[in-house]
Write a structure and sequence with these properties.
Blueprint: H1 2-14, H2 16-45, E1 56-64, E2 70-71, E3 77-79, E4 82-85, E5 87-88, H3 90-99, E6 104-119, E7 124-132, H4 136-140, E8 146-147, H5 154-157, E9 161-164, H6 166-173, E10 183-186, E11 189-196, E12 212-215, E13 232-233, E14 235-241, H7 247-261, E15 267-275, H8 282-319, H9 321-329, H10 334-372, H11 386-412, H12 416-421, H13 431-462, E16 473-478, H14 487-502, E17 507-513, E18 524-527, E19 540-547, H15 551-555, E20 559-562, E21 576-580, H16 581-586, E22 597-600, E23 603-611, E24 626-630, E25 644-650, H17 654-668, E26 675-679, H18 680-687, H19 689-723, H20 725-733, H21 738-767, H22 783-809, H23 813-819
Parallel strand pairs: 2-13, 7-12, 9-11, 19-24, 21-23
Antiparallel strand pairs: 1-4, 1-14, 1-15, 3-4, 5-14, 6-7, 6-10, 6-14, 8-11, 9-12, 10-11, 16-25, 16-26, 17-25, 18-19, 20-23, 21-24, 22-23
Helix pairs in contact: 1-10, 2-8, 2-10, 2-11, 2-19, 3-7, 8-11, 8-13, 8-19, 10-11, 13-19, 13-21, 13-22, 14-17, 19-22, 20-23, 21-22
């Protein structure tokens, strides 16, 4: 084998053009595969770094006739008459945990604690946190790097303790070992740091990072409602199944408890037990199907690379038939000749795999940036770990066999007599090579069609009318809740900040609201008009947003009837709301909604105007009925913590204006930091981050497939011209013109491309149906996309033939015939 490896290296060094092309081709295929697999592995396959992650389960529920007053969750689905959800109230969690004793350890958390202002003695910053039950870390099996984590009884004790992550410890405390016992002020309360988590623990949703954890104790300032309240469903559940027990046993034990917990809000309720080895499966649900399709497309690209190198190897083997004949005449058997060809392919695959890993590192960084730019703000670890390296090694081994086997089988059939006789005659015509080129075109057609459909879908999303003007709009958040303001002081704080921002040079207007538009954040609730005749238990439903009086003017949303919100809509004034046109059409179609009132948040609100429809949280979602509440009037109970998002309209660049905005906020209160500083245009792009990720991936894979297809066609045509060099020389000597030489070569290239297109189109029409759920505003059988892709492949065939044609038309008859 060592001798064979030396020989393989010598032979490959003698053909630097072939060797470089083959290694680059394999590197493109293996590198693309490794980069995409690193993403698939991080989101779909990787387990949490905790003991025995296969024992973890995620607990959801399902039921019929669901009548929620308030629910906070990400997973929401309806199949038939059953609705599925993930959040429960605290009393239900306690009952489920007690019933599961001996079967599983059930723990809970409340995740929506973003951009909390944390005050240290010498600084203030924004951080994200979670409220967790006292058995959260013990059931997961996570131990502290420093200090301790929460233990049984901490919820009941109600101590203001906090556990921080390793990243926050390094970032804000410099990794100092004396961090234990220090205090962090949040929402006007001092929390004592009792522990630092290990660096290896990413949280239960690995793509979303948190900075701190507080216990689930009564009276916590992070609670929207008291723990004993049963109408607010916001706590999510996981469990660790005890050895020897099954999912069915756990579901059977917990379902009766859930069914009896709140039959007025959920009928026929039951608990659904789902795998939890990787933590929360929200990202798996969101990205699972698209990534599986991308991995399939990547496999097709790798097949194109294999077919390409196999064709090049066949061409090279045909050109070396005289050498192989001599080896056979000197006693080399079939196994020996086959092994020589396979060893060469292994060397090529090893070189391609090594270069492919370098390309994968670059691709991994690009994928990380795309993930971070999504609306979900995902921060997955895409490092080339053991799983990715194993995938790359397996890919290299498979490609070595696929690329080397055709040439090896051909070498094994070398006949000494025929090979020696053929010296000086034309090399054989490669029928298998032509088949491989047609297969490359066929596969490339599918890859390019998928990429084209993804790009068209993304273009449609980018041209959606959002109902407001996102240009020149700067967005950021402020959370002054930790300053101990009363409701009236909070109102005054926000108005003073808004006025300071509006007075800045270059700023035309400013407004504040609950949350930024198109940020994938929303709030909704049920209500009944005071004059409704709805059956008991049935409600209308509306999206809701609390805004300042300057909101509609700043965002560019027109008031189409009645009036907008006014400065006179203060805390003590009658509660006023503006609804959108979708609200008027769907909720009050039989009468003008202006003047109608309904109860929400323990107050009566009167509709004073109708505004134009605007996208609220999701660019792709249909515009829902929306009610805009006067922001100052929301500060009347414990639900409001004072957090707000600001929108500043300015013709100046955001980076230029940031320092002025920070100074304007500091002039009101220097202890309140800015959070999430960005622009509305960036938020719009982030809103379609998943579609952009898939479109960019598809485009990159399509470009690789197109390049490989071009190389495959070029290699075959170049070989065909080389084997017919003598014939071409004779024709030129007899007076053939350049066009006479070029036409049949160009016809050969186009015929192969058209044959691949013709064979692939019916298959592509069927296969692209798998993409239909990932598309927006374009059919999976879109004729324009398919026609464009077919024309592009035909153009590539022409381009691939140009250089060989140039060489053919410049053959010197005397030199060529003398070499024959």
């Amino acid at each position: 084998m060592i001798a064979d490896l030396r020989l393989a290296f010598r032979q490959l060094l003698k053909s630097p053009g072939f060797t470089a092309t083959a290694i680059l081709t394999l590197a493109l295929g293996i590198g693309a595969g490794a980069a995409v697999f690193s993403l698939v592995n991080a989101i779909l396959l990787r387990s949490l770094p905790v003991p025995n992650p296969q024992e973890l389960r995620v607990l959801h529920w399902s039921g019929t006739d669901v009548r929620m007053r308030s629910i906070n969750q990400e997973y929401d689905e309806k199949i038939g008459d059953r609705e599925y959800g993930e959040s429960v109230n605290h009393p239900t969690f306690v009952h489920l945990r007690e019933r599961a004793a001996g079967l599983a350890g059930v723990f809970a958390w409340f995740p929506i604690m973003d951009d909390i202002t944390v005050k240290l003695p010498r600084s203030a910053f924004a951080a994200n946190g979670m409220m967790v039950s006292d058995n959260f870390f013990s059931v997961l099996g996570v131990h502290a790097h420093l200090g301790r984590v929460f233990a049984a009884g901490d919820d009941a004790a109600g101590r203001p303790d906090v556990v921080i992550t390793h990243a926050l410890w390094q970032r804000r405390f410099g990794g100092a070992p004396d961090v234990l016992g220090q205090t962090m002020s949040m929402l006007g309360h001092d929390y004592t740091i009792i522990g630092v988590l290990p660096e290896s623990f990413p949280g239960i949703r690995p793509g979303v990072k948190h900075d701190f954890y507080v216990s689930m104790s009564e009276g916590s300032p992070f609670l929207f409602v008291p723990l004993a309240q049963d109408w607010h469903w916001c706590f999510r559940l996981m469990a660790r199944l005890a050895p020897g027990h099954t999912d069915a046993q756990l579901a059977a034990a917990l379902s009766p408890v859930f069914a009896q917990a709140d039959p007025q809000r959920v009928k026929h309720g039951r608990i659904e037990v789902l795998p939890g080895f990787g933590g929360l499966d929200f990202d798996r649900d969101l990205y699972g199907r698209p990534l599986a399709l991308m991995l399939g497309i990547t496999a097709l690209v790798m097949l194109i690379a294999c077919a390409n190198v196999a064709g090049l190897s066949l061409s090279r083997g045909a050109a070396r038939q005289h050498e192989l004949a001599i080896r056979a005449a000197l006693g080399a058997g079939r196994f020996r000749l086959t092994r020589l060809a396979l060893v060469e392919s292994i060397v090529l695959a090893a070189g391609g795999g090594a270069l492919g890993l370098l390309l994968a590192v670059w691709g991994r960084d690009a994928l990380s940036r795309l993930l971070a730019g999504s609306a979900d703000g995902l921060r997955y670890d895409l490092s080339l770990n053991v799983a990715v390296l194993a995938f790359s090694l397996a890919a290299a081994l498979v490609t070595s066999v696929l690329t080397g086997l055709p040439a090896a089988l051909r070498a094994a059939r070398a006949d000494p007599l025929d090979g020696l006789k053929s010296r000086g005659t034309a090399a054989p015509r490669l029928r298998l090579g032509r088949f491989l080129v047609v297969a490359q075109v066929c596969i490339s057609l599918f890859v390019l069609a998928g990429a084209g459909l993804g790009l068209r879908s993304l273009a449609n999303l980018r041209h959606i009318d959002v109902g407001f003007n996102p240009d020149h709009l700067i967005v950021f958040g402020l959370n002054p809740a930790s300053e101990g303001y009363t409701p009236s002081q909070l109102v005054d704080f926000h108005h003073r900040v808004r006025d300071a921002l509006a007075a800045l040079p270059g700023v035309s207007d400013a407004a504040f609201m609950d949350y930024a538009l198109l940020s994938k954040r929303e709030s909704s609730g049920g209500f009944r008009f005071a004059d409704d005749n709805l059956p008991p238990g049935q409600n209308h439903w509306t999206e809701r947003q609390s805004v300042s009086d300057s909101y509609f003017r700043t965002l560019g949303i027109p008031i189409v009837a009645g009036r907008g919100l006014l400065p006179s809509d203060t805390i003590d004034a009658p509660k006023a709301i503006v609804v959108n046109e979708a609200f008027a059409r769907q909720v009050s179609p039989d009468r003008n909604p202006i003047g109608r009132s309904f109860n929400m948040w323990s107050a009566s609100w009167t509709i004073v105007g109708i505004c134009g429809d605007a996208k609220l949280s999701d660019l792709k979602a249909k515009i829902a009925p929306t009610a805009y509440f006067a922001f100052p009037q929301r500060f009347y109970d414990r639900f409001s913590l004072g957090q707000a998002t600001y929108a500043v309209r300015s013709s100046l660049p955001a980076a230029t204006l940031r320092r002025s905005i920070e100074q304007a906020v500091a002039s009101v209160n220097p202890a309140v930091p800015l959070t999430g500083f960005t622009t509305q245009t960036i938020l719009l792009q982030h809103n379609i981050g998943r579609e952009r990720l898939l479109a960019d991936l598809g485009t990159a894979l399509g470009a690789v497939a197109l390049l490989l297809c071009c190389l495959g066609l070029y290699g075959l045509i170049a070989y065909d011209i080389a084997r017919r060099r003598g014939e071409i020389a004779v024709r030129i000597a007899l007076g053939a013109q350049s066009g006479d030489i070029a036409r049949p070569i160009l016809g050969e290239a186009l015929s192969l491309a058209l044959l691949g297109i013709g064979a692939g189109l019916p298959l592509v029409f069927i296969a692209t149906r798998l993409l239909r759920h990932q598309l927006y505003g374009v059919a999976s059988y879109d004729p324009l996309t398919f026609g464009t892709v077919a024309a592009l492949l035909a153009l590539v065939a022409i381009l691939a033939a140009l250089l060989p044609i140039r060489r053919a038309t410049h053959v010197d008859p005397v030199t060529a015939l003398r070499s024959e």
